[in-house]
Amino acid sequence: MSENPTAIATYLMDMDGVLIRGTHLIPGADAFIERLRAAGKPFLILTNNSMYTPRDLQARLERIGLHVQTHELFTSGLATAQFLKQQKPNGTAYVIGESGLTTAMHDAGFILTDARPDYVVLGETITYSFQRLTQAIRLIMEGARFIATNPDVIGPTETGMVPATGAVAALIAEATGVKPYYVGKPNPLMMRSALRQIGGHSESSVMIGDRMDTDIIAGTESGMRTVLVLTGVTAREHVERFPYRPTHILESVAEIDPATLA
């Protein structure tokens, strides 16, 4: 990094562990978002969870006191749909997931079908059924390309941790011998898609996250500066275990001032 880095113009940030924890707002998160708006800094809130549409997420955040617009939210479901639209416009897919993924795939021009689809696309769902998993396995063995929205193996819910996309993808991969292509974090593809959406550039952007193995590595590999906040799953002493380091380590987003962060 140069001694005089380009000023930070755009902000990407994870949602869970950075702005919210479960169903609660992290103290100071709402004021941080307002500081970004007041400073005229475009931002995008990212989540690897493909279950919800931006409209669903907006309503969820609104209920706990965080006021954001739908265009300020970006999910791995949206990133997956955008990626596949670039790869095969007007393609076909067999999708296992909730409305956040199926809506994004429809909006990207895909036809959802179980008749020789181009892709099998796996995302989060609360109803993984043996029948649908079996169908996915058969379609992949017949030649469908295997895509998964994210590699997270477990995820938090209001009732506790549950298996997430990565765990189910591992089951399918073991059965078929075909590994999925993961679109969400830590794939830098999601970072580039998000930056493109808000007109950002890596050299003048920052990624804020609570996980070294997804948020910080994704930002680092995308050429962005990074901020690790300690309100999620990573403790300060854990940082030394990784071969890469965040640009800054802060207690929370409450400490971030867009006028001074460099």
Characterize the structure shown.
By secondary structure, this protein is α/β, with parallel strands linked by helices. The chain has 2 domains: 10-48 and 185-255, Rossmann fold; 83-182, HAD superfamily/HAD-like (Rossmann fold, 3-Layer(aba) Sandwich), CATH 3.40.50.1000. 32% of the residues lie in helices and 21% in strands. Strand 4, helix 2 (54-63) and strand 5 form a beta-alpha-beta unit. It is globular, with a radius of gyration of 18 Å. The mean pLDDT is 94.
- The CATH architecture of the largest domain can be named as 3-Layer(aba) Sandwich
Given helix and strand content, the structural type is alpha/beta
Q: What is the CATH superfamily of the largest domain? A: HAD superfamily/HAD-like
| Shape label | globular
* Helix content bin: 25-40%
Distance between the termini: 11 Å
Rg over CA atoms, rounded to whole Å, is 18 Å
Arithmetic mean of pLDDT: 94
Structure annotation, total helices: 8
Q: What is the ordering of alpha helices and beta strands?
A: EEEHEHEHEHEEHEEEHEHEHEE
Largest sheet features: 6 strands, parallel
CATH class of the largest domain: Alpha Beta
CATH overall fold name of the largest domain: Rossmann fold
Count every beta strand, where a strand is a DSSP E run of 2 or more residues: 15
Give a quick set of tags describing it:
about 260 residues; alpha/beta; Rossmann fold; 6-stranded parallel β-sheet; 5-stranded parallel β-sheet; 8 helices; about 30% helix; globular
